């Protein structure tokens, strides 16, 4: 894995989140992926289970609900690449209604391990909500 490949995967991750297309989500992950929404969670195990969880059909502990179109945006970039492991940071923003003001902002950190085919085999997300006064109201 190199910086450019890592950014490409992150861009596909964001596109899959924006579309909720099951194939786009599945293409990100290895068949035996272990996905954690929070570091202390038991992982969601297996590509099908991760896709189901992303689509709001699973019952994984800590999983978020499916976001309504136009109510969120984000950007992520790799900050460290070491062999098959990538650490990426970014920011995600949420609105109550499409085009409305940003009501919640999170700083994110992903630790992602990839297989030989560039698919994620292990994913852990760390995030913290940005205090209201520190988050931009547009974006």
UniProtKB/TrEMBL annotation:
SUPFAM superfamilies in the record: NTF2-like (SSF54427)
Gene3D superfamilies reported in the protein's UniProt record: 3.10.450.50
Start and end residues of each SnoaL-like domain: 11-122
Stored InterPro entries: NTF2-like_dom_sf (IPR032710), SnoaL-like (IPR037401)
Domain of life: Bacteria
Pfam families on file: SnoaL_2
Name of the featured protein: Nuclear transport factor 2 family protein
The species this protein was found in: Phycicoccus sonneratiae
């Amino acid at each position: 894995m190199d910086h450019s490949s890592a950014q490409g995967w992150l861009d596909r991750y964001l596109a899959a989140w924006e579309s909720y297309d099951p194939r786009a989500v599945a293409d990100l992950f290895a068949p035996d992926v272990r996905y954690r929404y929070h570091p202390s969670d038991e992982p969601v195990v297996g590509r099908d289970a991760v896709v189901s969880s992303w689509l709001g059909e699973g019952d994984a502990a800590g999983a978020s609900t499916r976001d309504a179109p136009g109510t969120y945006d984000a950007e992520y970039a790799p900050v460290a690449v070491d062999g098959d492991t990538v650490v990426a940071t970014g920011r995600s923003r949420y609105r109550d209604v499409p085009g409305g003001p940003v009501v919640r902002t999170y700083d994110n950190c992903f630790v992602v391990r990839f297989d030989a085919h560039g698919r994620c085999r292990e994913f852990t997300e760390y995030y913290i909500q940005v205090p209201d006064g520190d988050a931009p109201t547009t974006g």
